[in-house]
Design brief:
It contains 20 helices and eight strands. It is α+β, with helices and mostly antiparallel strands. The strands form two sheets. It has a four-stranded antiparallel beta sheet with strand order 1-8-3-6. Helix 9 crosses helix 10 (204-233), helix 11 runs antiparallel to helix 12 (260-277) and helix 19 packs across helix 20 (415-429). It is elongated and about 105 Å long. Residues 1-12 have low confidence and may be disordered. Bound molecules: adenosine-3',5'-cyclic-monophosphate. Adenosine-3',5'-cyclic-monophosphate is lined by residues 339, 345, 358, 367-368, 376-380, 387-389, 391, 428, 431, 433-434.
Length: 435
């Protein structure tokens, strides 16, 4: 049922979402006013507002129960029965009926019956969790806010309980007694306890109650501090992850006595990853996505290469999609040989950023320098011959590779792309330096 609710809140039409919000707000008001009413009742005090609020609550919860029944929300899940009972008992005026029909019912039963609608706060809680999931960017702050609200509610409940059960100063005004009870609850919950209001040490019930509040308080505040700490730690999640990874890699290199020069290269690589991608591994994230969203993500992430390769700019949308999904990202380090002359080629490369040198037969003099928007490594694939030259990165390069199989597949569907690549390969093979 909770799962059903999760999907329903994201997919339900706006009016129902607004209604859900309204019932959650009503539940919150009831969670404040019903214990207040019980407290006032035990102090022989009544206020028409408390009575009116209670009946508004019953009406709202009854309408909500009927709406959910008609939407068949309670069917087909194990938790459906639990939600059914919870909503039903929150909507029925069990307390007032009991008071009329069984006048000498035990006190605890009467109080529990009157407080039944407070249970609806569970729905408010699940709704707030839903929102946290739907909007992960503010989940941390929402979590802290809902914890603070929950602790404020607990303080209120305990304060009311304290007056209802232990209050022994009926001559003071009820509002002042409530304030004193809240003051006592807060000081006891924070385990500060100034000692100006103390439990009767000869009364076991008083002592146990005070200790219980202290324990709840210690747990609750520990929970808040923990939440705030994890919220702060996650504020810059990407940087923390990156630093964490760097620490592990440094420890690994120290442990394996990796030479200084190699360490610098590793650092340079990760710094480049951080500068250009904030350390995120694109392919790791993409592989987890369902195909339809993945293609859209890939189209977006690779829009730079599509804009830079002159041929792509004029290509039709279908060809672009066919190509883009086949491209695999690759980073080349400065000085790295991306292609070795004589090798069997199995992929071609597109340059998204950076510069590569195509080296002449002396293996040192560049015969061509290719920059972003160019491609290379196509001759071996088109002509089915070994690589004709060395290609070396002269800076950090962001490349995309296209495998032989993918290239052939795209060419059979879009011969005009094959024609374009073939023409450039023929010019380059003629060995005039071409950019
Ligand atoms: P391939 O032979 O597969 O591998 C080396 C690559 O260098 C080659 O494909 C071309 O893409 C590229 N290349 C070779 N000669 C030139 C040139 N003159 N100008 C630009 N690129 C070239």
């Amino acid at each position: 049922m909770i799962a059903a609710m999760s999907s329903s809140s994201s997919m339900t039409p706006a009016p129902f979402a607004r209604w859900e919000l309204f019932t959650a707000f009503t539940a919150f008001i009831m969670a404040i006013s019903l214990p207040l009413e019980q407290m006032a009742y035990h102090a022989s005090y009544t206020h028409p507002m408390l009575f009116i609020t209670r009946w508004i609550g019953y009406i709202v919860f009854s309408i909500d129960f009927i709406v959910r029944l008609r939407r068949k929300e309670y069917r087909g899940s194990a938790n459906g029965n639990a939600w059914f009972l919870l909503d039903l008992f929150a909507a029925l005026p069990v307390g007032p009926v009991l008071m009329r029909t069984w006048t000498d019912a035990p006190g605890w039963l009467m109080v529990s019956a009157h407080l039944l609608p407070v249970l609806r706060i569970i729905r408010t809680y699940t709704l707030s969790r839903e929102w946290q999931h739907q909007n992960p960017a503010t989940a941390g702050i929402r979590r802290i806010a809902s914890t603070l609200v929950f602790i404020a509610l607990c303080t209120h409940w305990i304060g009311c309980w304290q007056i209802a059960v232990y209050d022994a100063s009926p001559e003071t005004h009820i509002a002042m007694r409530y304030l004193q009870a809240i003051y006592w609850t807060v000081t006891t919950m924070t385990t500060i306890g100034y000692g100006d209001i103390t439990p009767d040490k000869t009364n076991a019930g008083d002592l146990l109650f005070t200790m219980l509040i202290m324990v709840i308080g210690a747990g609750a505040f520990g929970f808040i501090i923990g939440n705030i700490a994890s919220f702060l730690a996650n504020l810059d999640f990407a940087r923390n992850q990156h630093l964490d990874k760097m620490q592990r890699i440094n420890a690994f290199m120290r442990y394996n006595d990796i030479p200084e020069k190699l360490r610098e290269q590793v650092h340079g690589y990760y710094n480049y990853l951080w500068r250009t991608r904030k350390g995120f591994d694109e392919s790791e994230i993409l592989t987890e996505l369902p195909a339809s969203i993945r293609i859209e993500m890939e189209m977006h992430l690779r829009r730079d290469i599509v804009a830079k390769v002159p041929f792509f700019r004029g290509a039709d949308n279908y060809l672009l999609r066919a190509l883009v999904v086949e491209l695999k990202p690759l980073i080349a380090l400065p000085g790295e040989y991306i292609i070795r002359k004589g090798e069997i080629g199995d992929k071609m490369y597109f340059i998204a950023s950076g510069t590569v040198d195509v080296l002449g037969t002396d293996k040192t003099t560049p015969i061509a320098t290719l920059t972003e928007g160019s491609f290379f490594g196509e001759i071996a694939l088109m002509e089915k011959i070994p690589r004709g030259a060395d290609v070396r990165a002269s800076t950090y390069c962001d490349l995309y590779t296209l495998s032989r199989a993918a290239l052939e597949h795209v060419i059979t569907q879009y011969p005009e792309f094959g024609e374009h690549v073939r023409k450039l390969a023929a010019v380059r093979k003629g060995s005039a330096p071409v950019n």
